[in-house]
Amino acid sequence: MDQNDILKAQSPAGLAEEYIVKSIWNNHFPAGSDLPAERELAERIGVTRTTLREVLQRLAREGWLNIQHGKPTRVNNIWETAGPNIIGTIIKLDKNYLPVIIANVVSLRTRMAEAYIPEAIHLVPDECVKLFSGLDELENTAEAYAAFDYQLFRQFTFLANKPVYALILNSFKAMYHQVAEIFFADANNRLLTLSFYRSLLAACIAKDSEKATACMAKNRQSSGEIWRKLSANLPDSFGEL
Predict the structure, then answer these.
(1) Comparing 31-40, 113-122, 138-147, 163-172, which segment has the lowest mean pLDDT?
(2) Which of 13, 27, 55, 82 has the smallest set of CB atoms within 10 Å of its CB?
(3) Alpha-carbon distance 113 to 122, whole Å?
(4) Which residues partner with 34 through β-bridges?
(5) Beta strands 65-66 and 74-75, pairing class
(6) How far apart are CA 86 and CA 18, in angstroms?
(7) Burial profile 89-102: b = 16 or more Cβ within 10 angstroms, e = fewer
(8) Is pLDDT above 70 for 79?
(9) Rounded-to-integer distance, Cα 144 and Cα 32, Å
(10) Model's pTM, two decimal places?
């Protein structure tokens, strides 16, 4: 692989990580193949074996590699072994994935919520009402709305006794906030969402999970149409998490 084709790194470890990741992504180290021996790979990249070993362990934890004692390090198929934590890396490697990733993040957040929020309202409606305690003081900015939205949807997972959903939201928190801030940059979208929050709060007060389901379905349709337009004009900096 040409050294000039490597992403810019700020440290020897960063250089090694970017070299290996980009080599895997560009199929220079194909899934299912073995990495070169540590000594050879360290010399090729220009880092110490100690630095390389630390990087390999980190990439193995992320799902890029499979390390077994006494055997060559094997390259994984990341679509089978990695988690949402590598989304930012994928975007840096190929911006063409942005529309798909955004659509997936928005869909995952919304579809999951349509399952667990009505359940939370059914189980503990009074506790659900408390989640909206800061709504009247919500600052009219994209950043404030993004933070409120994330916390609201995340806190509902615990009231629904769905803590694994909270872990899923945690795994793409940075992307969630970046997507949300773009959506909420438009004052009209903030007004639309404020109306949605109030309708959802009304469903909690009424202890009506079916009303919440209908409210969320309506919001999904209206916000989905907006996102389809926004996705066509994303800022160049998007994805730089």
Answers:
(1) 163-172
(2) 27
(3) 14
(4) 74
(5) antiparallel
(6) 13
(7) bbbbbeeeeeeebb
(8) yes
(9) 45
(10) 0.77
